[in-house]
User: Which sequence fits this backbone?
């Protein structure tokens, strides 16, 4: 019984952390129409940034800053934001698929650098020696995990509320205006490039926050955590949930993470031994099928975007 | 140094072939096709299957061509694999991309291609296993072109370069001398106007996929000849090929050729200053450099 509960706590924690990342991506893709092919780079920047800034000195990689935890987490988010700003600045004024290619390139390069810049990132062995905050007070057991889950849920709700406010604010209206008709927005004197950059960086900072929490939860991060498949998983979560709808996006995170965990468990339990080596491949194919299948048959997702009317009563709802 | 330069030119020959197809698709259908590199994998593995088949059925074909490690069976297999890969590209388009395209979202196409890449790559891994394969187990010794500075070239590599150049020249003739080539370019410039002038848009789209798949197959086989076949070769090739199209300018076939050689040479020259672990990052650095200096590439034109 206790095993089930503690597993559920573990599962919900990871799914909620990923849900935060999906919310960040939803701001980029769902609300603004920006294709981020390198979600994992922002996620990894947050995780690496947080752990490097928050860990005591450790032989083998950069560290020893031992910052107060919230500062370290904020540092990770800033790191993710800077990375996004550089890429966005270079590509957002160009044809839209440049952003897709450049972000994809950032993700490949990020993993590559984390793996090779051993002096800074610990190389393949990753960042070790991080102490989870409040560990002295709460220990390492179930209590800690429960408190951590509650904190993650609080962060998730805060991010959600922040994004909801943002989407009904004039800024959110502007984002949708640019997504739907850039020329019209421009003719009203708006500057789409700047607005898009703001949305892109904000989304990446939120994804970086998710990465920072993820790194904190495991107290460890290595290049294995920033593989391209994470980008695909987060994308699948968003498309299943329904791009543009924050609540759908969060539901998608739980659905896909549940399906991923379950398929991994089922394959390792029931698949014949000689097929065990290929469970990864089969799971990857499933994620690919989910993405392509949703696009073909239900592009609006399971929970489609509801059109937000910023000033109810004054404007008629569009069909 | 000179060895890196020569190696780079050889790598460039198959990057160019891959980039030509990609740049045509990106120009005509207006989306960044992340699954294009998987066509190279399909081509490479397709040729492997045909090659094994021919060597079983007609052992005569198993003899090597001149000083190369490749056999006559592989030569035939390349041709068949080009057709197979071209057809697969058309089928993938019909099944997925065309239907997404009709729904109208350009970025959904990019997204769908991400998903397709994941599916194709892992299905290949399921069928052929995750470890690498070689076309031939025979060891062909490199020719020593010069001892000081040391310069080694394998006969296969010379063949790959020459064959790539011949194929590009043929493509150049088709694009610049035939009615078909004109309609292809017309569609790329202005699909609506081209249709008014009686160009069958559907046929041209099919042709683009056939050409892209066929050239991709050759590129995949050449990659396999130079290194080895692995199910994840598409993952390793997708960024260099994109870099080649961006360096050359999206939509420009000649730009893609030049871009492929530039990326190949630059990646190899980078080994002089960077540890080899970093070489996967070089294409991305090139993309950044091009976007900073000349966002539309060498031959590209600005287009929204």
Assistant:
């Amino acid at each position: 019984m206790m095993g089930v509960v503690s597993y559920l706590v573990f599962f919900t924690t990871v799914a909620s952390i990923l849900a935060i990342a999906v919310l960040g991506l939803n701001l980029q893709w769902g609300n603004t129409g920006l294709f981020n092919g390198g979600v994992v780079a922002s996620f990894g920047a947050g995780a690496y940034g947080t752990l490097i800034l928050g860990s005591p000195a450790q032989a083998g990689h950069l560290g020893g800053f031992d910052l107060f935890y919230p500062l370290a987490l904020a540092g990770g988010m800033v790191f993710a934001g800077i990375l996004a700003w550089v890429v966005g600045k270079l590509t957002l004024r160009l044809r839209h698929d440049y952003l897709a290619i450049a972000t994809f390139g950032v993700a490949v390069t990020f993993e590559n650098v984390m793996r090779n810049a051993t002096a800074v990132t610990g190389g393949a062995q990753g960042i070790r020696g991080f102490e989870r905050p409040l560990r002295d007070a709460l220990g390492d057991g179930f209590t800690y995990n429960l408190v951590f889950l509650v904190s993650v849920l609080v962060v998730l709700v805060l991010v959600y509320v922040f994004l909801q406010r943002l989407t009904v604010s004039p800024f959110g209206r502007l984002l949708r205006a640019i997504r739907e008709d850039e020329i019209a927005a421009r003719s009203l004197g708006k500057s789409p490039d700047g607005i898009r950059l703001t949305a892109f960086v904000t989304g990446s900072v939120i994804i970086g926050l998710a990465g920072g929490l993820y790194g904190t939860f495991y107290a460890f991060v290595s290049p294995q955590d920033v593989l391209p498949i994470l980008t695909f998983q987060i994308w699948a979560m968003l498309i299943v949930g329904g791009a543009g709808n924050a609540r759908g996006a969060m539901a998608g995170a739980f659905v896909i993470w549940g399906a991923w965990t379950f398929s991994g468990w089922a394959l390792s339990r029931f698949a014949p031994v000689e097929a065990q080596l290929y469970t990864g491949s089969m799971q990857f194919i499933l994620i690919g099928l989910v993405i392509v299948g949703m696009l073909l048959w239900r592009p609006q997702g399971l929970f489609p975007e509801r059109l937000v009317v910023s000033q109810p009563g004054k404007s008629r709802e569009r069909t | 140094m000179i060895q890196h330069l020569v190696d780079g030119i050889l790598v460039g020959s198959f990057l160019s072939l891959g980039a030509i197809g990609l740049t045509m698709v990106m120009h005509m259908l207006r989306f960044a096709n992340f699954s294009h590199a998987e066509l190279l994998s399909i081509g490479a593995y397709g040729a492997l299957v045909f090659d094994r088949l021919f060597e079983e059925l007609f052992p005569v074909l198993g003899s090597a061509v001149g000083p190369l490690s490749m056999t006559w069976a592989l030569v035939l297999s390349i041709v068949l694999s080009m057709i197979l890969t071209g057809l697969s590209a058309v089928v993938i388009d019909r099944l997925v991309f065309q239907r997404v395209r009709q729904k109208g979202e350009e970025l959904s196409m990019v997204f769908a291609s991400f998903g397709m890449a994941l599916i194709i790559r892992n299905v290949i891994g399921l069928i052929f296993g995750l470890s690498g394969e070689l076309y031939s187990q025979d060891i062909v010794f490199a020719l020593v072109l010069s001892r000081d500075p040391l310069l080694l070239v394998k006969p296969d590599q010379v063949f790959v370069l020459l064959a790539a150049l011949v194929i590009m020249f043929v493509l150049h003739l088709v694009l610049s001398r035939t009615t078909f080539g004109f309609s292809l370019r017309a569609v790329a410039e202005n699909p609506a106007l081209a249709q008014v002038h009686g160009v069958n848009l559907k046929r041209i789209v099919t042709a683009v996929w056939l050409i892209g798949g066929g050239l991709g197959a050759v590129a995949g086989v050449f990659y396999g000849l130079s290194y080895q076949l692995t199910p994840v070769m598409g993952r390793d090739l997708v960024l260099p090929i994109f870099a080649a199209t961006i360096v050359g300018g999206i939509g420009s076939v000649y730009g893609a050729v030049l871009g492929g050689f530039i990326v190949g040479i630059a990646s190899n020259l980078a080994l002089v200053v960077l540890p080899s672990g970093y070489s996967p990052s070089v294409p991305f650095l090139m993309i950044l450099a091009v976007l900073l200096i000349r966002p539309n590439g060498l031959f590209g034109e600005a287009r929204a």
Residues 312-319 of chain A have pLDDT under 50 and may be disordered. The longest helix of chain A spans residues 2-31. Chain A touches chain B at residues 33, 35, 37, 90-91, 94-98, 100-102, 104-106, 108-109, 112-113, 115-116, 228, 232, 235, 239, 277-278, 281-282, 284-285, 287-292, 295-296, 299 (CB under 8 Å).
